[in-house]
TrEMBL record:
Keywords: Aminotransferase, Cytoplasm, Glutamine amidotransferase, Repeat, Transferase. One of its GO terms (cellular component) is cytosol. This is Glutamine--fructose-6-phosphate aminotransferase [isomerizing]. The lineage of its organism: Bacteria, Bacillati, Bacillota, Bacilli, Bacillales. It comes from the Bacteria. Residues 45-184, 214-352 form the SIS domain.
Length: 362
């Protein structure tokens, strides 16, 4: 059938979609650039963002994880306060809103019922909204005031990969453009930095054998797996754990490195895999301290660090990218590890049990 043709020589859509990520980032650089080669986003959207006193990002699952990274980018670069909310909680447990809120709905499919329920509610309250989606003409796109497209091409695998990195790239560009409109001097050439990210992603996509080896060694028979990170790495390990859970059925949790000792460390046993990310200089020593804490309890550590911050026993080193854009690179090995873990455990990678690609019920 048609879907077989699209998959080409790949055994699963997920692997194809992981491999498409450098291309999607390069495409986004082209799509969000004006004739002078500068980053450009619809002026109405930039104005709406800069008129808001607070942004409320609303999303589910992987899109929510992208929103967490987006909060960091927007707060750091554009200096606008951002809250990130899980859609299914927001509807029933509304936070106190600021005076001039702008709602940003992040949804690959644009059809997620939980997110739509919030959009309906915030529209009733008269608040403006922007949808960031991969599907033009989708419900969330039609019903919001503004749309930014992800241009990632159809994402077929239930486990979202290229949409996540596209969401972060769009949020980074949005943050940079909003900063510029506010007269904030950034000192970051975001277009150039995203180009460096695309190259790094390519190198990471070529590291399939290493990731397969890690999956085999750490995850072939384990019951559970912990992911730890600090600062923005914490947000990325949440996504790494979700990927692993949904396709390999291994109980996986992402934790803030410093939070483990407040309870979760009780779960560490002899041989428990702990995958740690270390891409942030200001927390490099502290995350390594957290790894030592779990190793002392018998954990089997797998440190994935960034070039320049790497240390002797690191299992894998990702190429250096701009410190604010590391999630775009560091998530790729986590996606591949999840993929190979699922493959080796005989799971249906593209169609995991109990899940649908877009969740159209509340
Ligand atoms: C991701 O791997 C999941 N399958 C899921 O969490 C997904 O991201 C979530 O359901 C949100 O979907 P959306 O982006 O289409 O709204």
């Amino acid at each position: 059938d048609a879907s077989d043709i699209e998959k080409g020589t790949y055994p699963y859509y997920m692997l194809k979609e992981i491999d498409e990520q450098p291309l999607v980032i390069r495409r986004l650089i082209e799509k969000y650039r004006n004739e002078q080669g500068e980053l450009a986003i619809d002026e109405d959207i930039v104005q709406a963002i800069n008129e808001a006193d607070r942004l409320y990002i609303v999303a589910c699952g992987t899109s929510y994880h992208a929103g967490l990274v987006g909060k960091q980018l927007i707060e750091n670069w554009a200096k606008i306060p951002v809250e990130v909310h899980i859609a299914s909680e927001f509807s029933y447990n509304m936070p106190l809103l600021s005076e001039k809120p702008l709602f940003i709905y992040i949804s690959q499919s644009g059809e997620t019922a939980d997110s739509r329920a919030v959009l309906v509610r915030t529209k009733e309250l008269g608040h403006k909204s922007l949808t960031i989606t991969n599907v033009p003409g989708s419900t969330l796109s039609r019903e919001a005031d503004y749309t930014l497209l992800l241009h990632a091409g159809p994402e077929i695998a239930v486990a979202s990969t290229k949409a996540y990195t596209a969401q972060i790239a769009v949020l980074a560009m949005l943050a940079a453009v909003a900063a510029k409109a506010k007269g904030i001097e950034l000192n970051v050439d975001v277009t150039k930095e995203l180009g460096i990210v695309a190259n790094a992603m390519e190198t990471l996509c070529d590291a399939k054998q290493e990731m397969e080896q890690i999956a085999r060694e750490y995850l072939a028979t384990t019951r559970n797996c912990f992911f730890i990170g600090r600062a923005v790495d914490y947000y990325v390990v949440l996504e790494g754990a979700l990927k692993l859970k949904e396709i390999s059925y291994i109980q996986a949790e992402g934790f803030a490195g410093g939070e483990l000792k407040h309870g979760t460390i009780a779960l560490i046993e002899n041989g428990t895999p702990v995958i740690a990310l270390a891409t942030q200089e200001h927390v490099n020593l502290s995350i390594r301290g957290n790894v030592k804490e779990v190793v002392a309890r018998g954990a089997n550590p797998c440190i994935i660090s960034m070039k320049g911050l790497d240390m002797e026993d690191d299992r894998f080193v990702i190429p250096a990218v701009h410190p604010m854009l590391t999630p775009l690179a560091s998530v790729v090995p986590l996606q591949l590890i999840a993929y190979y873990a699922a493959l080796h455990r005989g799971c249906d990678v593209d169609k995991p049990r109990n899940l649908a690609k877009s969740v159209t019920v509340e």
